[in-house]
Amino acid sequence: MPVHKKKDITPSAENPKAESSSLTLPEQEEFRQYLRRLAVSAVQVLLEQVMREELEQCIGASWGEVTPNRRGYRNGSYTRDLVTSTGRIEDLSVPRDREGVFHSQAFERYSRYEPEVAEALTQMFVSGTSTHKVGEVAQTLMGVAPSASAVSRLNQSLTEQYETWRERPLLSHYRVIYLDGIHFTVRHGAQTDATMILTALGVDLEGSREVLAFRASAEESKDGWCALLQGLRTRGMKEVDLLVTDGHEGLLAAIAELFPSTLRQRCLVHKQRNVMSAIPKREQQEVMAELKGIWHQETKEEALLNLTAFKAKYQKRYPEAIRSLCEDEEHLLTFYAFPPVMHRYIRSTNAIESLFSNVRQRTDQIDAFTTETSCLTIV
């Protein structure tokens, strides 16, 4: 009988192409999260090794070493979480000593955030970014959003910085001080109210500008301005060559009480607005050109002649405009007592208005501040 060949029962090799097509790659987000976990794990290993070496230097002996230079003993470790720029480490092992004197330089005591992370979040708050937006950005970059308590702690650090700044000593002599206020909405319990932030901006004898003080007040009252001005004196300011202000009665009353002999310049930009509000729009361009011409004369004598002519020309036609112009008239041309190079800078409160514009760019996203302290801190 013929012998039948035995059939090969060894399974044939699978098609490599088919095999490769059956492999499934992880989704992009899943892969990114995997890389983040690897990075966080590597950072944790590094931090724990650094802290062990720090403790060794602190107590003066390695593990199990007997040495006359030993200054303490190890006492196990504890675990804590720490948010780093890489991500959250949930079970970081922190070594400790029996006496409790060891503290790692890797992070601040009691802080849940790496110093660089805390600083970045703080800068976002200062720039006017909302708490919700800060959380979204932190979640995207680090995989964790700051909790309400973390936000509170960060804001507390800002408050401490503000208090240090608010109480700092001042120079004894300033060339110019600009005074004005800016309003914000602040929550008081279940209600929101307008709060004025009274502001003093100083120019020293070298020409450098510096914000001297902020003070929260319900309104621009005499008491509020007196408190701010007295605070400047308490912190060392003794002499001011010129005060530049608008015409608010509370501010003027405070200046009359505390700085009666100091020269004062009425803001001409505010004055122009007040006068123009009583002039018909069809004539405002012509009248404005004449009004500005008064304070652009080379000498005070020429400016006074132009002022007299302006009043005579428009007294009968626009008495309300002239009445507004004559209010605080004796302080309209004070700037002529100073060198011409200074005139454009001291005729108005534009310097402090520029500051307020800068502040608004950072606070426009904040509908209402939770407290006066948080408002002052961000400003």
TrEMBL record:
<protein>
    <recommendedName>
        <fullName>Mutator family transposase</fullName>
    </recommendedName>
</protein>
<feature type="region of interest" description="Disordered">
    <location>
        <begin position="1"/>
        <end position="26"/>
    </location>
</feature>
<dbReference type="Pfam" id="PF00872">
    <property type="entry name" value="Transposase_mut"/>
</dbReference>
<keyword id="KW-0233">DNA recombination</keyword>
<comment type="similarity">
    <text>Belongs to the transposase mutator family.</text>
</comment>
<comment type="function">
    <text>Required for the transposition of the insertion element.</text>
</comment>
<keyword id="KW-0814">Transposable element</keyword>
<keyword id="KW-0815">Transposition</keyword>
<keyword id="KW-0238">DNA-binding</keyword>
<dbReference type="InterPro" id="IPR001207">
    <property type="entry name" value="Transposase_mutator"/>
</dbReference>
